[in-house]
Amino acid sequence: MKKNMIFVWLVSLCSIPLFSFYGRELQHYIMGHYSTDSLVMGLGVLLVGVVFSYLVALSRAGVSTDAFHLIWIAALALLFYIHLPFVEKIHIAIFGLFGFLSQKVLEQKFATLVCVLLPGLDELFQYFLASRVGDWRDVWLNLFSAALGMFLAYLLTTENNSDTQYQESSDE
Questions:
Q1: Which of 83, 70, 71, 96 is nearest to 148 (CA)?
Q2: In angstroms, how far is CA 135 from the centroid of its own chain?
Q3: How many domains does the chain have?
Q4: What is the pTM for the complete model shown?
Q5: CA 164 to CA 68: how far, in whole Å?
Q6: Most CB contacts within 10 A, which of 14, 44, 53, 105?
């Protein structure tokens, strides 16, 4: 399982510069073939699916006080999601997934370092591309998205660890 997650994390890591380099062409292709409403709906369903999956996992594991953080995380993510243009909604999906996987695969300090450095490096990379523009707003959106993904992974990991510790103590 850990090897599969490392592979998915590496794919996520490699996708970030690829989206930076080929993102405009991909964006124009997708926007030419699908309506903005259907794309927004698809990303919305994806976000709701993630939240629902987390709620199902909590119901199976039992609810702890940390689980209630999901309420304000979901509300904040939904608030950002509603008010962003479609192109920027993709940042939440890409960097949120990257932050989530980084938290699951890497040690806490290294995951934090990677998730703080990568958004800045990505926008710096875009600054030097002729078809792209490096933007501080995107850096902050990417940082927020990665932090959101990391926090969700932390809550899931904390939930699993507390269940394991509870089971071990009840077995004794």
A1: 96
A2: 19
A3: 1
A4: 0.72
A5: 19
A6: 105
Identity of the residue numbered 130: A
pLDDT tens profile 79-137: 766 777 777 778 888 999 999 999 999 999 999 999 999 999 998 888 888 878 878 88
Pairwise CA distance, residues 107 & 157, whole Å: 12
Measure Cα distances from 87 to 21, 51, 107, 158, 164 in Å. 15, 22, 31, 33, 41
Distance from C-alpha of 172 to C-alpha of 154, rounded to nearest angstrom: 27
Cα-Cα-Cα-Cα dihedral sign, residues 81, 67, 55, 16: positive
**CA–CA separation, 111 and 105 (whole Å):** 8
The gap from C-alpha 99 to its chain's centroid, in whole angstroms, comes to 5
> Max Cα separation, the chain?
64
